[in-house]
């Protein structure tokens, strides 16, 4: 027929290489595993919303889950599937559901798995919009207790009879508190709680949350995984560790087949399908291409952050530097044990005589902008922007000073960034 068969003739050989290769090699060759038409080295962008079947009985079989296939674009898409496979591989999980944004991944999963009367334990130190949506969940009858999750004892003390899950971030933004990840994992396992970890700040390159026994791992694909601030996306990955037969809120029609897939099935049906926060195929393509260089970008950005924080912490004009890579950080030891590097995000408080807006305006390479995980370095005055709506009291409990400036460092040359900070601080 002239078109290469959809099953790659080197499939078995590629599979073998894949299991033995490193992080980046695996990612780069992931799409070829499933055989791409014409030998295309990228999974194509499939824009079709629906899929045709010559035999209507086949269509019915796909709907009934008796045969695999594509039905309707809100639920499934080949381009998005290929990205989901890459994320599953990166997190060493068993399945991934992708969403239109990181927030959609978090909200939809909560809506799909929780019911009024359930209790959730989370951290004081949370991404602002996650904190905001958790407040919304409270008004829908789901009780949330926020604790200082840097110490497992606080999580243990908050457990109640109706506690269903624990949700923490690896490194919190902007103050870089690191959750007591391993101990919370052990606690959740012992107490049979669903352990949800938002891995956005560390990415699966720096840390696989499965190592801390996480059941569900969240990633905002918008950030480091996509990496170029040109596409929004989010994902939740099932690690296969949780015994879903013990989770009370599953509907009986999803309790079929392998127990490890029950939860993600309900998330895909009751969450993704019904809420409809679907990742588009173009965005999935951008994110997939971006993810190819995740390891390279993280190496460079983390090294830049490490060098800059060392420089800033000895500068007279800088009052405080928050970065887990610094030996004075409360979770420095834990961070160096858990993470390949300590991330590319840090925050600083400047001496009182320096206005944080003026300082940001004096930086030329660092862009004043929200977002993190871009190739470009970004800075933002936290209390006045992303944490403004939260109000002063909640900011105080989160340790967010009015002068706090957050930097999400990119992959510029280290000397250039150092020179930019140096110039902005020398008055
Ligand atoms: C950005 C972010 C999110 C939300 O992701 P979006 O793609 O912007 O919706 C969730 N968690 C963390 C830690 C984030 O940094």
Describe the overall structure.
- A 7-stranded mixed β-sheet has the order 1-7-6-5-4-2-3, sandwiched between helices. A 5-stranded mixed β-sheet has the order 8-9-12-11-10, covered by helices on one side.
- It has helices at about 10-20, 25-30, 55-65, 80-90, 100-115, 130-140, 150-160, 180-190, 205, 220-225, 260-275, 280-290, 295-315, 330-340, 355-360, 390-395, 415-425; strands at about 95-100, 120-125, 145, 165-170, 195-200, 215-220, 235-240, 320, 345-350, 365-370, 380, 405-410.
- About 40% of the residues lie in helices and about 15% in strands.
- About 45% of the residues are buried.
- The radius of gyration is 22 Å and the shape is globular.
- β2 (about 120-125), α6 and β3 form a beta-alpha-beta unit.
- It is of the alpha/beta class and about 425 residues long.
- Mean pLDDT is about 95; it is low at about 1-5.
- It is built from 17 helices and 12 strands.
- Bound molecules: pyridoxal-5'-phosphate.
- The site of pyridoxal-5'-phosphate has 15 residues, from α5 and α10.
- Pyridoxal-5'-phosphate binds near residues 101, 103 and 234.
Key descriptive features of the protein:
single chain, 427 residues, alpha/beta, seven-stranded mixed sheet, five-stranded mixed sheet, 17 helices, globular, disordered N terminus, binds pyridoxal-5'-phosphate
Helix percent reads 25-40%
Largest sheet descriptor? 7 strands, mixed
Number of strands: 12
- Low-confidence residue ranges: 1-5
- What value does the Rg take, in angstroms? 22 Å
Secondary-structure-based class equals alpha/beta
How many distinct helices?
17
Q: Strands across the major sheet, in which order?
A: 1-7-6-5-4-2-3
Estimated share of beta-strand residues: 5-15%
Bound molecules: pyridoxal-5'-phosphate
Average residue-wise pLDDT: 94
Distance between the termini: 71 Å
Give the helices and strands as they follow along the chain: HHHHEHEHEHEHEHEHEHHHEHEHEEHEH
Q: What shape does the CA trace take? A: globular
């Amino acid at each position: 027929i002239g078109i290469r068969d959809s099953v790659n003739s080197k499939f078995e050989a590629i599979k073998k290489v894949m299991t033995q290769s490193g992080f980046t090699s695996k990612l780069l060759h992931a799409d070829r595993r499933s055989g791409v038409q014409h030998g295309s080295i990228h999974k194509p962008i499939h824009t079709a919303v629906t899929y045709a079947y010559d035999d209507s009985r086949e269509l019915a079989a796909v709907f009934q889950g008796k045969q695999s296939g594509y039905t309707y674009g809100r639920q499934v898409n080949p381009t998005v599937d290929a990205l989901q496979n890459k994320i599953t591989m990166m997190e060493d999980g068993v399945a991934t559901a992708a969403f239109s944004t990181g927030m959609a991944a978090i909200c939809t999963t909560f809506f799909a798995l929780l019911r009024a009367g359930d209790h959730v334990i989370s951290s004081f130190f949370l991404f602002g919009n996650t904190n905001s949506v958790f407040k919304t969940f409270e008004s829908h009858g789901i009780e949330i207790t926020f604790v200082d999750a840097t110490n497992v004892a606080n999580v243990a003390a908050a457990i109640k009879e109706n506690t269903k899950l624990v949700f923490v971030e690896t490194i919190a933004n902007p103050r870089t508190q690191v959750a007591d990840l391993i101990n919370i994992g052990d606690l959740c396992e012992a107490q049979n709680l669903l352990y949800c970890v938002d891995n956005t700040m560390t990415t699966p390159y720096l840390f696989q949350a499965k190592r801390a026994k996480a059941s569900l791992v969240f990633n905002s694909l918008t950030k480091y995984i996509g990496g170029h601030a040109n596409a929004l996306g989010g994902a939740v990955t099932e690690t296969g560790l949780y015994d879903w037969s013990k989770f009370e809120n599953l509907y009986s029609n999803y309790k079929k087949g392998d127990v490890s897939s029950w939860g993600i099935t309900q998330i895909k049906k009751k969450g993704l399908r019904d809420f409809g926060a679907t990742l588009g195929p173009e965005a999935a393509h951008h994110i997939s291409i971006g993810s190819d260089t995740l390891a390279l970008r993280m190496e460079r950005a983390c090294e830049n952050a490490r060098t800059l924080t060392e420089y800033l912490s000895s500068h007279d004009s800088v009052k405080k530097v928050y970065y887990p890579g610094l030996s004075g950080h409360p979770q420095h030891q834990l961070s160096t044990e858990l993470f390949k590097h300590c991330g590319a995000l840090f925050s600083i408080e400047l001496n009182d005589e320096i206005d944080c807006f003026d300082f940001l305006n004096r930086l030329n390479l660092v862009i004043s902008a929200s977002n993190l995980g871009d190739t470009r370095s970004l800075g933002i005055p936290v209390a006045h922007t992303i944490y403004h709506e939260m109000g002063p009291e909640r900011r105080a409990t989160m340790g967010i000073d009015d002068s706090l400036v957050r930097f999400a460092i990119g992959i510029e040359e280290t000397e250039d960034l150092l020179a930019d900070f140096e110039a902005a601080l020398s008055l």
